[in-house]
Amino acid sequence: MKKILFLLTLFTLQLSFAQQNTEVYIFDISPSYSGMELLNARNVSNNEGYDNQPSFISNETLVFAGNNNGQTDISEYNLNSKIKTWVNQETEGGEYSPQKFPSSNDIAAVRLDKDGKQRLYRYDSETGKSSEIIEDLEVAYFSFYNDELILATVLADDKLDLVMINLTTKAVDTLFRNAGRTLQRIPKSDYMSYSLVNDEGNLDIYMLEMNILGSYFVSELPIGIQDYVWINDTQILVGSGNKLYMYDTLGEPEWNRVASLEDYGIKNITRMAISPNGKKIAIVAEEK
Questions:
Q1: CA angle at 19 for the pair 64 and 13, rounded to the nearest 5°
Q2: Which of 40, 94, 101, 129 could form a disulfide with 72 if both were Cys (CB 3.0 to 4.6 A apart)?
Q3: Does 249 map to a domain?
Q4: How far apart are CA 260 and CA 273, in angstroms?
Q5: For the chain, how many helices (H) and strands (E)?
Q6: Measured in whole angstroms, how far is the alpha carbon of residue 266 from the centre of its chain?
Q7: Could you tell me which of 109, 150, 106, 145 has the C-alpha nearest to residue 128?
Q8: Beta-carbon contacts of residue 84 (< 8 Å; ≥ 6 apart)
Q9: Number of independent structural domains in the chain
Q10: Domain coverage including residue 147
């Protein structure tokens, strides 16, 4: 496998949701000699405007923030029927970063209102009605550990603070300052993952052991990269341009190229999500 050579780019921490013409693609994952092969590409958003932040709620269903006639709403796509539906009732703001509650069909998402108010809401899976989860907390990004605990980043001046939210007690504990936007529960483990800005202005990935809240350094992300996804409990994937690179925590401490999506005519890969069974990947990118 080729070792990665990344162009040096200026890293900019984004505290707001940029409105870009992005699409959400789904691929089947197949192991190959060069690392992995992505097959059966499908543009599941197929929509002008901002379509982003995918999350699998099952092996057959994906949710993402989608452009609904100029309004960003929660879109749900069924991989079997190939039908896309809108989850939430219309609100005054836009819905971002939708994710399923661990033991419920309800969806959580960040709502950004026109007046700048930014909060975490719960959306009823049957009615689409919403209710605020934590009042007056400016949540930027989040990820569930279980039904009680959420790892999140909140707006703090011009940076992001990493916090732990307890939904039972409503307690919000600040863990670290100056965090990145990608948060994820590591598959088949008791760990969460987050990133922090280091002294050089780049992002370092950490594992957070939830039983004791102990943090462990994993790797520095390639320069200019904010988004990553754990494809299992030991391997991490990032996108750069139209290429994918992998870091194996059990291998050499380096990022190796494992796939190219050049033939699919896409560029500027950012966010990704892996299905629970690890057989499909959702990728946010732009068309050439």
A1: 95
A2: 94
A3: yes
A4: 17
A5: 0, 25
A6: 19
A7: 106
A8: 44, 45, 66, 75, 76, 77, 78
A9: 1
A10: 23-287
**Length of the chain in terms of residues written:** 288
Please report whether residue 103 resides in a domain: yes
Find the CATH number of the domain harbouring 83: 2.120.10.30
Q: What is the DSSP letter of 3?
A: B
Tell me how far apart the alpha carbons of residues 281 and 272 are, in angstroms, rounded to a whole number: 7
- Rounded to whole angstroms, the Cα distance separating 119 from 106 reads 17
Q: Do the Cβ atoms of 187 and 237 come closer than 8 Å?
A: no
Measured CA angle at 116 (ends 115, 117), to 5 deg: 95
pLDDT tens digits for 38-86?
A: 999 999 999 999 999 999 999 999 999 999 999 999 999 999 999 999 9
**Separation CA 124–CA 130 (nearest Å):** 6
Q: Is 210:239 a contact under the CB 8 Å cutoff?
A: no
Q: CB–CB of 272/21 below 8 Å? A: no
Confidence of residue 7 (pLDDT cuts 50, 70, 90): very low
Q: How far is CA 233 from CA 192, 196, 250, 282, in A?
A: 10, 20, 10, 18
Is 3 a member of any domain? no
**Integer Cα distance of 189 and 193 in angstroms:** 11
What is this structure's pTM?
0.91
